[in-house]
């Protein structure tokens, strides 16, 4: 996921609070900026947005139109962290700072546009990068996680036999079934690849396996392409710890869990029979 520094708006143009709103509007127009950091004696004291300019007479001072204090963010933060700040403070612009230095500005519209790149347009589910960001936030909050990896069996044949239009419809149906069978309070659902789905869940290992069994049974009984039943395999990893560990590396932990769950799913598919093990779950309709 891109960082704030990669998405911020530059060049840096600042204005002092004793200048006129008319002067500020002119500077913003010339630089093609949507806001101006307000600086006094080298200190950031606020931010002036288009909304602030429109709300004030051009002869008023910037100090009367600015929002203060300015909400700031580090350039190394992710756009997902920026989005959380926008939602928490209900502002339209952030000022990007590194120590006392103003580096640029970041609009909420820019962040939402960037976030949209991480949503799968067919299913409207998070893609892997966004899924990992959400999962890392859960790990940072001290939650134990398990990963369920679901893979539709022989899905390539569905596209070859019935075409990609029906294939896409099956993928959307699978996403809808998974969405209806999971709880957003406990489960983060995403589309990993073409016919692969991932659920990062706060459930224990036992509960995650039970959920995986339920999902495999439901999808394998309800997913159809023409007259053919589409079966599903699933692998489960994690969910074993009962308390948070110090010094964990969230990114590496998630990669390990997703990789292990994917391998278990592949193993289940290769075995071609119902398997419920410590970390593997699969069930087929035939």
Can you characterise this structure?
By secondary structure, the chain is of the alpha+beta class. The protein has helices spanning 4-7, 21-31, 50-54, 62-65, 79-89, 108-116, 128-140, 155-162, 164-181, 205-222, 250-271, and strands spanning 35-40, 43-49, 72-73, 93-98, 101-107, 146-152, 187-191, 196-201, 224-225, 228-229, 232-238, 275-276, 280-283. The strands form four sheets. The chain has a six-stranded antiparallel sheet with strand order 7-8-6-11-13-12, with helices on both faces. It has a three-stranded mixed sheet with strand order 3-4-5. A two-stranded antiparallel sheet has the order 1-2. A hairpin with a 2-residue loop joins strand 9 (224-225) and strand 10 (228-229). Helix 5 (79-89) crosses helix 6 and helix 8 (155-162) packs across helix 9. The protein is elongated, with a radius of gyration of 25 Å. Mean pLDDT is 87; it is low at 274-286.
How is this fold's topology laid out?
Elements: H1 4-7, H2 21-31, E1 35-40, E2 43-49, H3 50-54, H4 62-65, E3 72-73, H5 79-89, E4 93-98, E5 101-107, H6 108-116, H7 128-140, E6 146-152, H8 155-162, H9 164-181, E7 187-191, E8 196-201, H10 205-222, E9 224-225, E10 228-229, E11 232-238, H11 250-271, E12 275-276, E13 280-283
